[in-house]
Specification:
single chain, alpha+beta, 7 strands, globular
Length: 200
């Protein structure tokens, strides 16, 4: 079977082609298929939880650098079939776009059982019908990954919104009492440099 998926980098510019796209949701054939979870699997599921939405090219760059794409794609499919991740993608007129992954209820439970996240964390179901509702997260992640590619080992850390404690004076809703937004990403580098921003 010929693969029609567009092959492109995880750069900030590339993800803009997703704008205003209707969503196709991944479907599982029958029951969940258990799989042996490796340390990398756990790290992948944790990353998806931390950064909310990650595309196939982004995950391949982060966890399978220099490897053939099919190796990472096959593992992501196993995690999807096991119920740890949910996936969806914009509908394309020709060919197909890469999948975007989000944490599934079983995935969050996996992280809790492994002691990776606190027991108090709660799963929030989101039915995505329009890709515009996740575009900000995908674009932010693409921006940070592009910066990571540029900085290399100088990038010490990268925190998603789920790992950032709201600053004093800010509410959990993501805005301050004055209406200002809370940063949705934070990065630490060896030299001067900090990024934290949120779109509208």
């Amino acid at each position: 079977m010929r693969c029609t998926e567009h092959h492109f980098s995880a750069s900030y510019e590339d993800v803009h082609r997703f704008d205003e796209a209707v969503v196709e949701r991944g479907k599982r054939a029958g029951r969940l298929v258990p799989c042996v979870v490796t340390p990398r699997d756990l790290a992948v599921v944790h990353a998806v939880w931390r950064y909310q939405y990650l595309t196939t090219p982004q995950l391949l760059e982060l966890w399978w650098p220099g490897r053939a794409a099919w190796a990472g794609q096959r593992r992501l499919l196993k995690l999807f079939r096991a119920g740890y991740l949910v996936r969806f993608r914009p509908v394309a007129r020709r060919g197909s776009f890469p999948w975007t992954y989000r944490i599934e209820r079983e995935g969050l439970q996996l992280l809790k059982d492994a002691g990776v996240v606190a027991r108090r964390e709660r799963y929030e179901h989101r039915a995505i019908y329009d890709y515009r509702y996740v575009l900000h997260e995908v674009q932010c992640n693409a921006w940070v990954i592009a910066w990571r590619r540029l900085l290399g080992e100088s990038l010490l850390g990268w925190w998603g919104e789920s790992a950032i404690d709201p600053p004093q004076g800010f509410e959990p809703s993501g805005r301050s009492r004055s209406g200002s937004p809370v940063p949705s990403r934070a990065c630490a580098t060896l030299g001067p440099g900090f990024y934290g921003g949120r779109g509208g």
